[in-house]
Amino acid sequence: MNYLKIYTLLLCAVLITACSDDEEQLNSGAATVNLQEAAMTVKESAGLCTVPVVVTGEHTGTIRVSFELKDHNAKEDENYIVTTKTLLIPAGQEIVNFEFKTVDDKLVNDDRSFDIEIASVEGASIGEKKRLTVTIKDNDSSFYETLSGTWIFTGTASATNVSNVSVGFSVKVNTAEEGTEAYEHYLVCSNKNGFDPDNDIEWEFNWRLQYEYDAATRKTYLSVVSDEDVASYGSYTIRFRRLALDGSTSNVYRGEYDVDTKTVIFENANLIGDMYKDGLIQIQKFRLFDCKMEHIR
Asked: Smallest Cα–Cα separation from 69: which of 89, 84, 88, 47?
């Protein structure tokens, strides 16, 4: 019986030691944790945003950082979402990111703000840069900004091997960077293939829509930008051009945006995709007509 008790005690000691070894070892060196910036501004439509957290000094163990959020006129879970307020920084890692996600409410409102503050740290000390103020800029007061998001492009397409087939595909639309000449003049679009119904080449399209707002008629027009490379595959590229059905000579493939249906209906013309090599046209790769774009989110 005595041997059994001794064996049991030894086994317990081994298990306790093993469990202790599995637990995280907090840093014991002289490390300091700071936020990289004191302020940041993001658009309401930004989605996932990152705040760099920087570790300096001796860092040979885990550092646990807890954060506190202080709302000004922004509200957590209404204007922004945070999934975790604690970060574990492994030994030797100098930068990690605190994450939050903005909520696009599709309403016109004032800019909103809140603070992210380092509340406590285990395994290091808190530095002087412990608080960051986030300003969330409203994007709905600018109609141009509301056009960013996911759209569905539909039309009737023909190519080398197929004729007059229906196509429909998702297009990601972004605004140009604020402060650039393109801002409020162009939208940046991207999608995989879609335009070419042959599907014999894995095109990745990056193209632009010209944005126009007629203040007198209060109408918005979007036009596919022609005569620039919008996709590439090896030495081959694709460029858009307009082919008129009514004899007109304009190269602008234009559509009017309907605010109620959130749909652009393009004019009665063909959107051509010409394939180039070394700057010289090779073939007409595809043709589309009856085109529409619907803003779904």
From this structure: 84
Neighbours of 61 (CB within 10 A): 19
* Nearby residues of 76 by Cβ (< 8 Å), 6 or more positions away: 69, 82, 114
The more confident residue out of 223 and 250 is 223
Give 255's strand partners.
Answer: 222, 266
Cβ count within 10 A of residue 254: 17
- What token pair was written down for 144? 């141009």
Q: Which of 208, 226, 297, 295 is nearest to 257 (CA)?
A: 295
Closest residue by Cα to residue 191 from 144, 215, 217, 224: 224
Phi–psi pair at 21, nearest 5 degrees: -65, -30
H helical segments located in the chain: 2-22, 143-146
Closest CA to 213 of 177, 178, 172, 185: 185
Tell me what percent of the chain is helix, strand and coil, each rounded to the nearest 5.
Answer: 10, 55, 35
Mean per-residue pLDDT, 264-285: 94
Q: Find the distance separating the first CA and the last CA of the chain, reported in whole Å.
A: 73
How many residues in the chain? 297
pTM of the model: 0.59
